[in-house]
C-alpha cells in the first residue's frame, strides 16, 4: 500500500494512493497523477483556513495572512490581486504604474490593423475564418469549455481575431483577450523578492496573463539604466527558428508580408519594458522547471515584431503554487555598468536547477 504525507500549515495528513496514471503534459513532459483516498476514520483534509468554493478549487481565507495591499491592480483587473507578506516588513511594491495593456513608446509606430475575418457573432468554421486559417494546421488554436479557453499546444505564434473582424468578444478565437480569468495573489518570497501564485486550479494551455509594459525599441534601451523587468518580443526569431525564449514546434512557415527575410536581425527589434509600468506578470519569478511558457499572440495587427506576449500554463497548476517561467538568459550575457559580467544565483528550488539566472 502506497501512502503520501500532505503538509498543510502545521498539520500532516496521510492519504492512501488509490490509483495513479501517466498523462502527457503540454510541453511533452510526462505528468504523473495520483488519486488519494482518506483512510477510514481520518479527518477530512481541511482546516479552518481552507475552504472549497465552487470552481475556485481552493481558497485560503485571510485569517492568518498579512495583506499589505488589497488589489495591486487598483481595480483595473477583472479580479483583484491581493498582496500578502508573511515573510518580513516590506510593504507592497510601489514605484511602478499598473497597466493592463501595453503603453506605446514615443518612437514606436504601430502598423495598420489587419483586415480580419468576415465571420459574424462567433467564429465557428475554421475553413472560413480568415484568422483561424493563419494558424498552424489552419485551425482554431484553442479549445473552449465552460467559458475557459486553452491552447492546444505551444505555437510559434497564435493568430486570434482582432479589431477589424466581423465576430464579437464572445468569439472562441479571442481567448487571451478580456483580462485575467484566474484568481492570482502576490506574495513575498524568502529569497526572490515578490512572487505570484494562483488561488485557482489552472489547466494546461490556459493563458494566465499578458506581459505588459512600455513597448520600446530594444536599441533605445541601451541608453537607459537596465532593469529586471524586460521582455524581448522574440516572436519573429522564434518563427524563423533563430532562438526565442521557449521550445517551439518550429513548424510554422514564415509567410508574413511585413518583413523581408534579409532584413531580419538576430536580436528582437522591440522589448516590453515593465520597469516603470506593467502588470502582475512583472512579479512572476524565474524557474528552471517552470509551470508557464511564453506565447506570442497576434490579433489587431499581424506584425510579429510587435506581437503581444502571454504567459500560458504548461501543465495543471494547483492552487497556491507559485507561477514561474524560464527567463532563459544566456549564461554570462548580462554585464554591469562597469562592463563586468554580472552573476545572479537562482533560488527556484527545482531538482535540476541550473544554479544561476545569468
Ligand atoms: C521580473 S523580476 C520578478 C519579480 C521580483 N521578484 C520582484 O520582487 O520584483 C526578476 C527579478 O526577480 C528575482 N528573481 C526572479 N526569479 C528568481 C530566481 N529563481 N532566483 C533568484 N532571484 C529571482 C531576481 O532579482 C530577478 O532579477
TrEMBL record:
<keyword id="KW-0489">Methyltransferase</keyword>
<keyword id="KW-0949">S-adenosyl-L-methionine</keyword>
<dbReference type="InterPro" id="IPR001214">
    <property type="entry name" value="SET_dom"/>
</dbReference>
<protein>
    <submittedName>
        <fullName>Histone-lysine N-methyltransferase, H3 lysine-9 specific SUVH4</fullName>
    </submittedName>
</protein>
<dbReference type="InterPro" id="IPR051357">
    <property type="entry name" value="H3K9_HMTase_SUVAR3-9"/>
</dbReference>
<dbReference type="Pfam" id="PF05033">
    <property type="entry name" value="Pre-SET"/>
</dbReference>
<dbReference type="InterPro" id="IPR046341">
    <property type="entry name" value="SET_dom_sf"/>
</dbReference>
<dbReference type="InterPro" id="IPR003616">
    <property type="entry name" value="Post-SET_dom"/>
</dbReference>
<dbReference type="GO" id="GO:0042054">
    <property type="term" value="F:histone methyltransferase activity"/>
</dbReference>
<keyword id="KW-0808">Transferase</keyword>
<feature type="domain" description="Pre-SET">
    <location>
        <begin position="115"/>
        <end position="179"/>
    </location>
</feature>
<dbReference type="GO" id="GO:0005634">
    <property type="term" value="C:nucleus"/>
</dbReference>
<feature type="domain" description="Post-SET">
    <location>
        <begin position="342"/>
        <end position="358"/>
    </location>
</feature>
<dbReference type="GO" id="GO:0032259">
    <property type="term" value="P:methylation"/>
</dbReference>
<dbReference type="GO" id="GO:0003690">
    <property type="term" value="F:double-stranded DNA binding"/>
</dbReference>
<dbReference type="GO" id="GO:0008270">
    <property type="term" value="F:zinc ion binding"/>
</dbReference>
<feature type="domain" description="SET">
    <location>
        <begin position="182"/>
        <end position="328"/>
    </location>
</feature>
<dbReference type="InterPro" id="IPR007728">
    <property type="entry name" value="Pre-SET_dom"/>
</dbReference>
<dbReference type="InterPro" id="IPR015947">
    <property type="entry name" value="PUA-like_sf"/>
</dbReference>
<keyword id="KW-0158">Chromosome</keyword>
<dbReference type="GO" id="GO:0005694">
    <property type="term" value="C:chromosome"/>
</dbReference>
<dbReference type="Pfam" id="PF00856">
    <property type="entry name" value="SET"/>
</dbReference>
<dbReference type="InterPro" id="IPR036987">
    <property type="entry name" value="SRA-YDG_sf"/>
</dbReference>
Amino acid at each position: 500500500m502506497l501512502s503520501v504525507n500532505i503538509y498543510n500549515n502545521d498539520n500532516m495528513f496521510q492519504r492512501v494512493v488509490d490509483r495513479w496514471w501517466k498523462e502527457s503534459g503540454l510541453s511533452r513532459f510526462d505528468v504523473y497523477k495520483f488519486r488519494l483516498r482518506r483512510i477510514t476514520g481520518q479527518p477530512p483534509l481541511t482546516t479552518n483556513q481552507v475552504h472549497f468554493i465552487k470552481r475556485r478549487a481552493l481558497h485560503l481565507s485571510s485569517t492568518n495572512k498579512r495583506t499589505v495591499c488589497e488589489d495591486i491592480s487598483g481595480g483595473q483587473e477583472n479580479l483583484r490581486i491581493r498582496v500578502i507578506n508573511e515573510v518580513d516588513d516590506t510593504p507592497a511594491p510601489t514605484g511602478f504604474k499598473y497597466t493592463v495593456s501595453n503603453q506605446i513608446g514615443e518612437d514606436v509606430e504601430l502598423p495598420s490593423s489587419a483586415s480580419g475575418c468576415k465571420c459574424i457573432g462567433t467564429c465557428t468554421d475554421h475553413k472560413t475564418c480568415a484568422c483561424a486559417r493563419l494558424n498552424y494546421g489552419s485551425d482554431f488554436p484553442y479549445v473552449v469549455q465552460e467559458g475557459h479557453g486553452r491552447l492546444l499546444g505551444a505555437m510559434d505564434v497564435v493568430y486570434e481575431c482582432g479589431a477589424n473582424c466581423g465576430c464579437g468578444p464572445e468569439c472562441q478565437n479571442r481567448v487571451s483577450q478580456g483580462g485575467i480569468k484566474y484568481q492570482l495573489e502576490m506574495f513575498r518570497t524568502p529569497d526572490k523578492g515578490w512572487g505570484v501564485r494562483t488561488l485557482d486550479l489552472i489547466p494546461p494551455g490556459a493563458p494566465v496573463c499578458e506581459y505588459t509594459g512600455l513597448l520600446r525599441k530594444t536599441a533605445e534601451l541601451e541608453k537607459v539604466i537596465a532593469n529586471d523587468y524586460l521582455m524581448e518580443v522574440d516572436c519573429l526569431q522564434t518563427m524563423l527558428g533563430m532562438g526565442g525564449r521557449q521550445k517551439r514546434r518550429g513548424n510554422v512557415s514564415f509567410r508574413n508580408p511585413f518583413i523581408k527575410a534579409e532584413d531580419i536581425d538576430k536580436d528582437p527589434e522591440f522589448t516590453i519594458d515593465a520597469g516603470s509600468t506593467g502588470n502582475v506578470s512583472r512579479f512572476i519569478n524565474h524557474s528552471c522547471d517552470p509551470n508557464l511558457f511564453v506565447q506570442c499572440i497576434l490579433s489587431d495587427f499581424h506584425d510579429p515584431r510587435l506581437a503581444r506576449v502571454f504567459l500560458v500554463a504548461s501543465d495543471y497548476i494547483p492552487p497556491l503554487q507559485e507561477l514561474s517561467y524560464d527567463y532563459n538568459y544566456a549564461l554570462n550575457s548580462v554585464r554591469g555598468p562597469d562592463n563586468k559580467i554580472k552573476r545572479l544565483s537562482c533560488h527556484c528550488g527545482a531538482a535540476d536547477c541550473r544554479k544561476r539566472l545569468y
